[in-house]
Design brief:
This protein has 750 residues and is of the alpha+beta class. The chain has helices spanning 32-42, 92-102, 123-138, 196-206, 224-238, 243-250, 260-266, 281-285, 306-316, 327-341, 346-356, 430-433, 451-459, 461-464, 475-486, 493-499, 503-531, 560-569, 573-609, 613-621, 624-636, 642-655, 660-686, 707-724, 729-749; strands at residues 149-150, 153-157, 164-168, 177-182, 185-187, 379-381, 389-390, 396-401, 404-409, 418-421, 694-698, 701-704. Helices cover 45% and strands 7% of the residues. The protein starts with 31 loop residues before the first helix and ends with a helix. The structure holds S-adenosylmethionine.
């Protein structure tokens, strides 16, 4: 458990509700210079952001200003839009309750109605029902071919430069399944990392295709994303297709030419706006026909040109939400399997690894052994789903289980409206906070010297340095990445609203986004200090450390190694740990105070401008990484801040309901509320006050019945139902339990 004392004085304690930010004026807060000045003073000691994480060179780089191939992948993350409360769950309490009462079970993806009976049954029956429900939900994907399904959606010509898109054929509700489709080409991080340039050579060598890359074009330092990008091309080049698949492939758009010369040299990939109508989804996916079609057609001629193929793959491949195989489902399935066959111990996994370790990767000994986890980095081409256009407030969520993509409505969408996904990762989860987000899209943008993106870039390390564009970045960053990677300027409602905000507020947002990366690195450094300062080491300042959690995720910052060495060189171990402890406290306090100061600047600016709730939400959505850094710094100090967890969950849910990030924050907000209430209950009990009704055990605490817990629980289950559809209570519990146990295990590992 990560709890511990509450710091009521935390800088975000005022953030009771994102929709009701205080309007306290902050003199001069709207003057850009003044804000900048404040900010710079606050951040004077912060280290420089590291040099760009994403290489600027790539083997298939085009002649124009297009991003290098390492960035030429579509990182579609989650989706939908609508506010958190407008998702599956706004009105969920009633249905949730009735679901429990009447025992209606959830439906699996394959339509299996394994309804568990949670109440009033013998424990073994409950367990069996839970397992059946989990099986129903998690069956098939990955284990065998899952029939493609087309829900209430159809292809439409959209006009306005957007080309084709998908629209609803009736009103759909959050959580409704819109599409399941198996990939035509799919690359994962594992299996490709080691291949390097040999993959590229293989691509050349496998078929004498005119125009495909030649070896001398390829960078010997081919990186993972390059390898995956090329891997998809290789898969598409080398496989055979049915006639309907070939027809669909021939209708794919590519990136628009970057210049006239580029168009001449590039061979003219078709831009979305110039394309003929796409075949119906049912035709593309072969839904409604029993005919077994032969796969004997090769890739259409148009795509056998290397530039066109590269452009088509870049425009049509994407990485589903979460950047990995759906993690909740993966871990919950694993638990269900463990129930059936007994858990696979780490020893078993070790043995399995040894047994299978006939490759020559130099692996030896268990120090390099890591337990299995969900496969990461799926970059794929899914027929039909490629017609989903982008929105920065998408109304669907798309995630992958096995190699099947599931697209569900994440908001209510009226009949005939376009459905959209995000081409950008959401970027608001714990991985982002702690810098472990290997899956986020590269957002390093080449400077073309024009426009807002260039202006922003010139002063922003968010774009040019160690961060990347996510759905929770400011509009300039999102647009720059989308334009660079996909060749369009996003004009979604969120972008338009954000663009319309007061210029001074936008400048503050840019300033915050720019500085957040530095705060993140400061936090990592602080955590590294904590790592060398063991628990229980008292010194003069230790009183306020009572109960501090040392279990928060930690990562060693870049600067830390040198600092560690210095410390060790000091001599006495006791002195070193004591010094480290002081350093840790100082560094963490500094992050909290700097992030808190920015939060206050945002609040003051929004208050002064008297923004509407929608405008506040738009403004705050662009600086969510600041809130997450503040949350992480507080959590690392053992402090929980329920309003902050709630605010981030609400913001992430308003931008990308049903996304993995949304579920993470919703589960976090629930746990935070449970901890807070349990703590209050314990305090009350200690003071001999009457303890309110409590039911048995959550994580070692008496689980209190409290409105705050109940409300957080309703919002959390609503988020899960948005992502996974009408799951039953046991399945929801199984997903939450698996998530909690995995996080506890990770914390213990750390
Ligand atoms: C995966 S395809 C989507 C389907 C595409 N509209 C078509 O007709 O084939 C991606 C391409 O669609 C276009 N596109 C996607 N989202 C867009 C948006 N929000 N505004 C304008 N164009 C968009 C861009 O040309 C992008 O490269």
């Amino acid at each position: 458990m990560r709890l511990i004392g509450l710091n009521r004085q935390s800088p975000c304690a005022h953030a009771q509700d994102s929709a009701a930010m205080p309007t306290g004026a902050h003199p001069g807060a709207l003057m850009r210079t003044s804000i900048k000045c404040n900010a710079k003073t606050q951040l004077a000691t912060q280290p420089e952001a590291p040099a760009g994480l994403w290489p600027m060179g790539g083997p298939l780089r085009r002649s124009g200003c297009r991003a290098p191939s390492s960035q030429r992948f579509v990182a579609v993350a989650a989706n939908p839009a609508g506010s958190d409360s407008g998702g599956a769950g706004g009105s969920e309490p009633a249905s949730s309750k009735s679901g429990r009462r009447n025992g209606k079970g959830g439906r699996g993806y394959a339509g299996a109605g394994a309804g568990p009976r949670a109440r009033g049954n013998a424990p073994s029956e409950v367990a069996a029902a839970a397992q059946a429900a989990a099986d129903a939900l998690f069956t098939n994907p990955g284990a065998g071919p899952l029939a493609p399904q087309v829900g209430p959606v159809a292809v439409a010509e959209l006009g306005g430069g957007r080309g084709r898109g998908l629209v609803t054929t009736r009103t759909v509700q959050p959580g409704e399944l819109l599409l399941t489709v198996r990939s035509l080409a799919l690359a994962w991080d594992d299996g490709l990392a080691a291949l390097g340039s040999s993959l590229a050579t293989d691509l050349v060598g496998s078929e004498p295709v005119p125009g495909t890359p030649v070896e001398e074009d390829l960078d010997p330092d081919l990186d993972l994303e390059d390898a995956k990008f090329l891997g998809l091309q290789r898969q598409l080049l080398s496989r055979r297709y049915t006639l309907r698949e070939a027809e669909w492939l021939a209708s794919l758009c590519g990136l628009p030419p970057v210049s006239e010369e580029g168009a001449e040299q590039g061979g003219g990939a078709q831009a979305a706006a110039e394309l003929p109508p796409a075949p119906a989804l049912e035709t593309v996916l072969g839904v409604g026909t029993d005919t077994v079609e032969r796969r004997d057609v090769s890739l259409p001629e148009r795509l056998r040109n290397r530039d066109i193929l590269a452009d088509v793959v870049q425009a049509n491949a994407f990485m589903p939400d979460g950047g990995c195989e759906d993690a909740d489902v993966y871990w919950a399935r694993r638990q269900v399997e463990d129930l059936a066959v007994g858990p696979m111990s780490l020893d078993d996994e070790y043995e399995a690894k040894v047994d299978n370790d006939d490759d020559d990767d130099g692996w030896e000994g268990d120090e390099e052994f890591e337990p299995a986890g969900p496969r990461v980095g799926p970059l794929g081409v899914w027929p039909g789903a490629n017609l989903l256009n982008h929105s920065c407030m998408p109304n669907t969520v798309a995630y992958v289980i096995g190699d099947t993509l599931f697209v569900r409505a994440a908001r209510k969408v009226s009949s005939g409206s376009e459905i959209t996904v995000s081409y950008l990762p959401v970027g608001g989860g714990a991985d982002t906070v702690f810098g472990g987000d290997e899956t986020a899209a590269a957002a390093e943008v080449e400077d073309d010297g024009e426009g807002a993106a260039a202006e922003y870039e010139s002063s922003s390390s968010v774009v040019s340095g160690g961060s990347r564009g996510t759905l929770l970045s400011p509009v300039e960053v999102r647009r720059a990445v989308l334009e660079d990677s996909y060749g369009f300027v996003c004009g979604c409602s969120r972008c338009v609203t954000e663009e319309g905000l007061d210029p001074k507020l936008r400048a503050l947002i840019a300033d915050i986004a720019d500085s957040t990366q530095g705060l993140r690195e400061d936090l990592e450094t602080a955590l590294a200090w904590a790592e060398v300062a063991p628990d229980g080491e008292d010194d003069e300042d230790d009183e306020d450390d009572e109960g501090q959690s040392k279990k928060a995720p930690r990562k060693k910052g870049k600067q830390q190694t040198a600092e560690d060495d210095d410390e060790e060189g000091e001599g006495e171990a006791g002195g070193t740990t004591s010094a480290s402890r002081r350093q840790w406290r100082k560094a963490a306090a500094s992050v909290v105070s700097q992030a808190g100061a920015y939060v206050e600047l945002m609040d003051a600016a929004m208050g002064k401008l008297k923004l509407s709730m929608a405008e506040q939400e738009t403004a705050q959505s662009a600086v969510v990484p600041l809130y997450t850094v503040l949350w992480a710094a507080l959590a690392a100090r053992g402090e929980i801040e329920p309003p902050l967890s709630e605010m981030v969950a609400s913001l992430v849910g308003s931008v990308a309901p049903g996304s993995a990030d949304h579920l993470w924050w919703r589960a976090n907000a629930l746990e935070t509320a449970q901890i807070l209430v349990a703590e209050e209950e314990m305090e009350a009990a200690a003071a001999s006050t009457i303890v309110r009704g409590a039911t048995a055990g959550f994580g070692g605490f008496k689980r209190p019945e409290d409105d705050r817990v109940a409300n957080a629980g309703k919002r959390c289950s609503a988020a899960f139902k948005t992502r996974y559809g009408p799951i039953s209570r046991p399945v929801y519990k199984a997903l939450l339990k698996a998530r909690r146990e995995r996080e506890d295990a990770e914390r213990e590992d750390a």
